[in-house]
Write a structure and sequence with these properties.
With 855 residues, this protein is α+β, with helices and mostly antiparallel strands. It contains 20 helices and 31 strands. Helices cover 31% and strands 26% of the residues. It has a seven-stranded antiparallel β-sheet. The two termini are 43 Å apart. The C terminus is likely disordered.
Length: 855
């Protein structure tokens, strides 16, 4: 198990929707009833994302969603609320401990906003060793405090020059303080300094063993009571508090203390630091509505998922489909989205997604009596289609929509046509012209993109069209509506409404542009009715002119041609790759290539753009590229050791004759760039197998000390994921296992229902939210799912217990000062044994159940 434990990895993912804030406090100056408000999302104190600014309100609505894979360990997920005044001033924050995220999983929750001050904004940890010694020659007591190193200290304006002070407090109130040297330009300093404090007794004799740490000072016995280690950033004219650790000393402490500690906020020792003393009412800061979706999966080696994997990938061949593992998992797991996402990724990885969707769609269409209601609900097949379009259509979406949306972002023409939202009614006609122009551009971009639609999507659309026309042969429009409902209503329209969520832009979207996108999305959603409705539907009177403008024979013909092409054949025309697709872009800091000396001047900010052809950078967005690196020249993409440049979020792009060193803006951006570039370079036949994790500085490699710049790498490159879809199949299987265990009670309820159904004649079993057509095969699949889940869960719990046993409290992985490790140990102790099936249950099938069994 020890060898397997080293192969286990923890994968975390966060999705958070910042909904709205209410009852924010007034300003103390200017307009006291209004603020311009935005939020930032942070891991600890590291800003990851930022919302748009909502102007002139104390009750802003944001409605923005962010999702990302968590790239590192963190203690707090924080949302800061800012007022964009003359300077950006923080109003307050919501901070949620990492281990508490599960309490709010997939729920809307109002959080109280709390005040922020410099003494509460701490992160990082410090390694401290404490020794208490008695010197026989001088009969004195010595206290030795060794400050070894720190990790992940808070950056102050992008910089950190830390030093530490060590204060020893005595019971008589005296305090003695020492300070270490300052370490420049690092938030993970190595101090390696020992500070010694000494106490001399008032009398040379009469010391007992129990008075080892006492001193007679001015006729008052005193003893060491505690050590306080405080970290500061050495700023000009003033030291900035970074955090502190308090270590109590007692007579019973006779052994050396050697441990890592989490830094803590400064304790409020006076009213000077109290928010209430500064006129801040901590209970009247307003509240913030958040919806958090947090998952943390322990991913085991691939062979451990064989049983669960086989059940899933064999689902398309199971008859009836309601007895397949995919269908049953969709019924057992309450959230169809939670079930659909990992199922789609696993099936795509194994080439089974098209037959699976066809099987589920066949069953669903067979139960529909009205063609207008096909796939209109949030069923499993609808959610699976959403995920397929998101994964397979990523490049297609960017290639189709990005140019037209970039025009909207750059021009920012007003498009408001709702009379209740404009002050001057005379501008409505001009705004209508602007809106029609934007919608027409996007409509043409979509309808002219049919030949570039991904093969996988065309295969699925072809099957859906054939199924719909076979079941509703008299409905001439169903061949179009069944496809338009997906491609327009569930693909293009949501991407236009939330371009940041679909990576179509990284820019902040102002209120006016956001409203423009909403109006465009409304119109695009209505386009799915062009091919079936006799007249356009209009729930809002002011939109009627827009709908009428596009309800023309020209637009209907273009729409039908587009839908015919993307669903005409399961083997569509091969798409052309002459036009590059933009995959990712944004500002990063680069080190100048080819320079030998290291200095601040060697690092410059540039705007990078990664496409399906090359990686380029320029001084600013829209400027001519200063350099273009063909993808064929990218031999490896790996992170760089922090010691090389003393900078965070550094990674390297290895080319045939040089290495380009880059710095991302935060840990999430770094992971996204590295993952995307690494995926791209895996197509290179000359990809490296070894690389240098350190930089080449001062005529040698810092990692292996080789002096030749062309020396072969000293470390293995990172492992790669699935080439085509970037799918981590084992991670998705771990997600399915976690979801199954979370809802094992629902699975067992269906098993019991199958047993009860055997009492009656007939094979159909009706449950509140599902339909089981064949009791015997359904029970067999459920039993196999349960067995696979329990087998994995036994391994999972054994692994967690082993980690708890081998993780020392006070180690770098489990620092003192937080209850993460103690909570883990406590939860493991409270784990109840899994409920095994009885021998009778394991052996019998429902048809063998005694006829007198009661339901």
């Amino acid at each position: 198990m020890a060898d397997g434990a080293r192969r286990v990895r923890v994968e975390e993912r966060l999705k958070i929707k910042i909904g709205e804030a209410k009852n924010l406090p007034n300003r103390n100056h200017g307009s006291v009833t209004q603020r311009d408000v935005y939020c930032t999302l942070s891991l600890d104190q590291e800003e990851i994302f930022r919302t748009s600014t909502i102007e002139r309100t104390l009750n802003p609505f944001f409605g923005e969603e962010f999702q990302f894979s968590v790239p590192r360990r963190f203690r707090y997920l924080s949302v800061y609320v800012y007022d964009h005044d003359k300077t950006d001033r923080v109003i307050g924050k919501v901070a949620i401990k990492r281990e508490d995220l599960q309490l709010y999983h997939n729920k809307d929750h109002w959080f109280q906003i709390r005040p922020v001050n410099a003494d509460t904004e701490v992160q990082g940890k410090v390694h401290i060793e404490v020794k208490l010694e008695h010197c026989m020659d001088s009969l004195s007591d010595r206290l030795c405090v060794h400050i070894s190193e720190c990790s992940d200290l808070t950056l102050i304006n992008g910089c950190c020059d830390p030093s530490a002070t060590v204060s020893v407090k005595l019971t008589n109130g005296k305090v003695e303080t020492r300070r270490t040297r300052v370490r420049k330009k690092t938030n993970s300093p190595v101090f390696d300094e020992t500070i010694v404090f000494e106490l001399l007794p008032s009398l040379p004799s009469g010391r007992g063993s129990d008075s080892r740490y006492k001193v007679n000072h001015q006729n008052n016995d005193a003893e060491w009571s505690q050590i306080v280690v405080t970290l500061y950033h050495d700023a000009t004219g003033n030291n900035v508090f970074l955090g502190e650790v308090t270590i109590p000393l007692s007579q019973q402490q006779h052994t050396p203390s050697n441990a890592w500690y989490f830094l803590q906020p400064r304790k409020r020792c006076s009213t000077k630091l109290s928010p209430s003393a500064l006129g801040v009412d901590e209970n009247n800061m307003g509240s913030l509505r958040l919806k958090i979706h947090y998952t943390a999966d322990h991913v085991f080696p691939s062979e451990m998922y064989n049983q669960l994997r086989d059940l899933i990938i064999q689902s398309p061949a199971v008859q009836p489909v309601t007895s397949s593992a995919c269908y049953l998992l969709g019924e057992i797991i309450p959230s169809k989205v939670d079930a659909a996402q990992p199922l789609v990724r696993i099936l795509m990885h194994h080439g089974q997604i098209v037959p699976m969707i066809k099987a589920l769609a066949t069953w669903e269409i067979s139960k529909v009596t009205d063609a207008n209601t096909i796939f209109r609900g949030n069923t499993l097949v609808s959610k699976m289609m959403d995920e397929v379009m998101r994964l397979a259509g990523f490049h297609y979406l960017h290639e189709t929509l990005r140019p037209a949306l970039d025009q909207v972002f750059s021009e920012r023409k007003p498009c408001e046509i709702d009379p209740t939202r404009v002050r001057d009614p005379n501008v409505i006609q001009t705004n209508l012209v602007n809106l029609k122009e934007y919608v027409e551009n996007i409509f043409k971009a979509i309808t002219s993109s049919a030949l570039r639609c991904p093969t996988l999507l065309c295969q699925v659309f072809h099957d859906l069209r054939e199924l719909a026309t076979n079941y509703f042969p008299d409905n001439k429009e169903v061949r179009y509506s069944v496809i338009s409902g997906f491609i327009f209503l569930r693909f293009f329209a949501p991407a236009i409404l939330g371009p940041r969520l679909f990576d179509l832009t990284t820019e902040q979207i102002d209120v006016q542009t956001n409203r423009t996108l909403t109006l465009i999305s409304k119109t695009i959603q209505s386009l799915c009715n062009l091919v079936s409705a006799r007249s356009p539907r209009c729930n809002e009177e002011y939109m009627s002119s827009m709908y009428q403008a596009f309800y023309t024979e020209t637009h209907i013909t273009a729409m039908r041609q587009f839908l015919e092409i993307i669903s005409a054949s399961s083997n569509p025309v091969q798409r052309s790759m002459d036009t590059p697709v933009i995959l990712k872009e944004g500002f990063m800091t680069k080190r100048a290539q080819g320079r030998k000396r290291f200095g601040r001047k060697n690092f410059k900010q540039r705007y990078f753009r990664l496409s399906t052809q090359d990686l380029t950078y320029s001084k600013f967005k829209g400027k001519e590229p200063l350099c273009s690196i063909p993808l064929s020249d990218i031999l490896a993409v790996e992170r760089v050791h922090h010691e090389s440049f003393k900078k965070n979020y550094m990674f390297q792009i290895v080319q045939p004759h040089r290495v380009l060193y880059l710095q991302a803006s935060n840990c999430v951006e770094e992971k996204q760039w590295v993952d995307m570039l690494a995926k791209i370079c895996r197509t290179n036949d000359h990809r490296l197998s070894k690389y240098h994790p350190g930089a080449y500085i001062n005529n040698h490699w810092l990692c292996c000390k080789a002096v030749s710049e062309s020396a072969a790498g000293c470390s293995d490159v990172s492992n790669s994921l699935d080439l085509q879809t970037n799918i981590d199949s084992e991670r998705e299987l771990a997600r399915i296992h976690s979801l199954t265990i979370s809802h094992i009670g629902r699975l067992e309820n269906v098993m019991r229902a199958c047993e009860c159904q055997a009492v009656y004649t007939g094979d159909i079993c009706f449950l509140p939210n599902s339909l089981i057509e064949d009791v015997q095969s359904c029970f067999k699949t459920l039993n196999a799912l349960r067995e696979a889940a329990f087998t994995l869960e036994h391994e999972h719990r054994s692994y967690l217990r082993m980690v708890a046993r081998e993780t020392k409290y006070g180690s770098k992985q489990a620092p003192i000062g937080d209850d993460n490790y103690l909570l883990l140990a406590g939860r493991l102790d409270s784990i109840t044994p899994l409920r095994p099936l009885s021998a009778k249950q394991n052996q019998q099938t429902p048809q063998q159940t005694p006829q007198h069994q009661q339901c």
